[in-house]
Amino acid sequence: MATKHEQILQHIESLPVGHKISVRQVAKDLNVSEGTAYRAIKDAENKGLVSTIERVGTIRIEKKKKENIEKLTYAEIVNIVDGQVLGGKEGLHKTLNQFVIGAMKLEAMLRYVGAGDLLIVGNRDRAHEEALKAGAAVLITGGFDAEEKVKQLADEKKLPIISTSYDTFTVATMINRAIYDQLIKKEIVVVDDILTPVDRTFFMKTTDLVDKWYELNSETKHSRFPVVDENMKVYGMVTSKDIMGVDRQLPIEKVMTKNPITVNARTSVANSAHLMVWEGIELLPVVDDHNRLLGIVSRQDVLKALQVIQRQPQVGDTIDDIVTSQFSENNDGPPHSYLIKVTPQMTNHLGTISYGVFTTIVTEAGSRVLRNYKKGDLVIENLTIYFIKPVQIDTTLEIHPKVLEVGRKFGKVDVDVYQDGKNVGKALLMAQLIDR
């Protein structure tokens, strides 16, 4: 039977998009405490089912799919720009197609504004009205208000009209930054993208006997299975090692490995790979927030996904992408040495190379030199930075990675970083090597 928390989440999912949700009403409808209702609504917000806006409240929104994650809702825009909703609250759940800056004559502006857009403009009452008539929401910058008839029109059209104290340039920058962040998130492959779902997953119940393992093994040729209770909560894992030489009539819970390592659907594939290598695991159960089985992910699934990621062009470049794209071979230096120029994006507020960028540089250099010794994937297990000296902007660095030790499954690299022949940084990197 579902818990009260789960019942509230199911209730929220059943509500129409755009419906306003209150803690008090949910508590009353489902006969639960307001504390329980509040926690469930916060959980729903984390899952992307609702959005909470200051001075407006919490509204049901459509959960985004991966392919349209970069599209923002008007509710998200309100939160990004610390805005105040002047009218059209019923349309806050809608997603916008594009935003248009109204820094032109009205006739020219309206040629660019269409249904589902967002017009960013100052205190131009006529522009507010015409944009709403064209099916676009309006964001008024500079903290200005809107005319009452415009607010009424926004309510009729169910299109938000929002006011923010920021100027137009700042608002456009903030929205662009939010879209860019969403694009980067879209490119990060998570377990949910590669898991084998529960309806195609073979598992055992805690009430099953060891004999059931032999049946599943014969049917699937697999040797590892999650063990769940009657509520589909994961209680253990069972492998061929666990049942070796054991009486077939024993309950499986007597021989299974209890409290197995699990991941949730939002865990990144890279993190799962590290976990599998670190713990020596071949199969991970994927669970929800209540430890119920959603599916499984195997080491083979993870490795395939990592190889696809490496071949994929990135839509939004992270700082790691920016740093590694600057790497070049140092033809005048020792074998397997590299050059990189320190750009403004790689510096901290003092104008010197940031600690995070230095970490990325030594990690990339160490990874590259290890791949020359052993083809395949690797997971960084430990990184020790002995020292780092201030390095100025527009400086060219030489990176000299030196392999100290490399085995079948393990590698150790010493990395020295030089500027004009002077040692400005030193690190030691250790990695687990994975055969493809």
TrEMBL record:
<dbReference type="InterPro" id="IPR036388">
    <property type="entry name" value="WH-like_DNA-bd_sf"/>
</dbReference>
<keyword id="KW-0129">CBS domain</keyword>
<dbReference type="Pfam" id="PF00571">
    <property type="entry name" value="CBS"/>
</dbReference>
<dbReference type="Pfam" id="PF07085">
    <property type="entry name" value="DRTGG"/>
</dbReference>
<feature type="domain" description="CBS">
    <location>
        <begin position="195"/>
        <end position="254"/>
    </location>
</feature>
<dbReference type="InterPro" id="IPR006683">
    <property type="entry name" value="Thioestr_dom"/>
</dbReference>
<dbReference type="InterPro" id="IPR028979">
    <property type="entry name" value="Ser_kin/Pase_Hpr-like_N_sf"/>
</dbReference>
<protein>
    <submittedName>
        <fullName>CBS domain-containing protein</fullName>
    </submittedName>
</protein>
<dbReference type="InterPro" id="IPR010766">
    <property type="entry name" value="DRTGG"/>
</dbReference>
<dbReference type="InterPro" id="IPR029069">
    <property type="entry name" value="HotDog_dom_sf"/>
</dbReference>
<dbReference type="InterPro" id="IPR000644">
    <property type="entry name" value="CBS_dom"/>
</dbReference>
<feature type="domain" description="CBS">
    <location>
        <begin position="256"/>
        <end position="318"/>
    </location>
</feature>
<dbReference type="Pfam" id="PF03061">
    <property type="entry name" value="4HBT"/>
</dbReference>
<dbReference type="InterPro" id="IPR036390">
    <property type="entry name" value="WH_DNA-bd_sf"/>
</dbReference>
<dbReference type="InterPro" id="IPR051257">
    <property type="entry name" value="Diverse_CBS-Domain"/>
</dbReference>
<dbReference type="InterPro" id="IPR046342">
    <property type="entry name" value="CBS_dom_sf"/>
</dbReference>
